[in-house]
Amino acid sequence: MITGKNYIGEELSALGETTYKTINPEKNSENEQEFIEATKDELNTAVEKGSKAFDVYKNKSAAEKARFLEAITSEFETLKEELIQIYVNESGLSEGRANGEFGRTVAQMHSFAEMLREGSWVEAIISNPEGKPDIRRMLTPVGPIAVFGASNFPFAFSTAGGDTASALAAGCPVVVKSHPMHSGTGELVSSAIIKAATKTGMPDGVFSNLNSSGIEVGQWLVKHPKIKAVGFTGSIKAGTALCRLAAGREEPIPVYAEMGSVNPVVALPSALNERGDFWAEQYAGSITLGTGQFCTAPGLILGIKGDALDNFIQVLGDSIRKIDPTCMLHPNIKAQYEKSKNEILSQQGFTEVADFPDEVNPNYAQQKVIAVEGNVFMNNKSFHNEVFGPFSVVVKCENKSQLTAIINNLEGQLTATVLNSKENELSEFKETIDALKGRVGRLIFNGVPTGVEVCAAMTHGGPFPATSDSKFTSVGLTAVKRWVRPVSFQDWPDFVLPEELKNGNPMGITRNVNGKVTKDAL
Fold this sequence. Notes:
Oligomer: single chain
Strand order of the largest sheet: 14-15-16-13-12-17-18
Helix content: 25-40%
Distance between the termini: 54 Å
Low-confidence stretches: none
Strand content: 15-25%
Number of strands: 21
Number of helices: 15
Largest sheet: 7 strands, mixed
């Protein structure tokens, strides 16, 4: 049952007087439940509880933390029907999308549990050659983490998303600032985490969830001296504001923000000559998937001028017109989509590829694709801007040199894609591909960028402004590295060392011992 209250550790709290409601964008009406805005006192209590919990939680064994994560998934399964319903009511997304994202979120928790049991993620290193100091190093958790829920993934990037899952796996308590567009989903998810924590003996305060419809709670949270790092998924404006707040603290802390990206797609000549119609249809689907509300949506398609590119543009336009518009997450997101789209459409020098001119329901987004010449794109940065929604720009480059120059002038991106049908062409465009590699966190070959696999090898990050720190990922097992720091132990007796560094290697993990990777005991 949704109460509209804040989870301050295990306690449901309602000290505030300010309330708000979520919106069902499909119905264009408010949902019934009122949510109570967290007060500064509640926030302080949540962080203080998290700090005390850290003293206990950081010393829980890997097996204990793994049981906690798996208990969360069991509680999710118990609440699945209710979770799916509130997700749909608050997001306008389909039940099929909700089920898919639910499965991804559960699988993500299981993956981190498996990582904990395997144990090598701590990067244990032992250097003790004869005649030298005995120095042993491993990763250790940093403390309570603030996590901001994302608008576009109410499960997978929000209350129990990758930031929360990886922080809990690292040994860090979490205080979530719930996203106001899906506060009911957030509270129900939080109830599952709290139940799992209680059942597995985790300390009170290992997790808290704060409601907020404004910016003050988030600002207070980032500035709280006992918060040690921040996870955020959202706009460039909000992400950079949080980075400035965190940098201005007496003790600066890192903000790991995933922000904007247009995810350039380079359609090489062979791909358009041999499979142009196929790729046009694929990208019509990718541009409109989830109403374009994916951080990896293809907002920019680059090709070299010619008949093949012209045909691709024609088929892309024809295909995208046939796709019925769908509902966006919230009236505010629909309004921002129209604003961002119109800012680009107010520029000179583009041609229309496709739109959807018919009237649509409130909060539904009419897709739009335009085309510009390479020199126009180079000289007008407005065409580079992300439009969060079903919008894309096709750039008609004069030649390979201009294509490469355009890529070198792009901002940092989450993904880039190369479409190709002839292997020898890849060598011909080596400089272009190298330029892409310098701009992104993930390079895709002959695919679409929408969709992010949760696995150990995934990088969901990229140079600014795609993220605030390109060394890290917000998806996949290495996301845990955002919430840890290295600690070295010099000449300590074996019995007081962490299990991961003891001579006998009681956990049986892979370690680097004097330059040799091994599971052997010393």
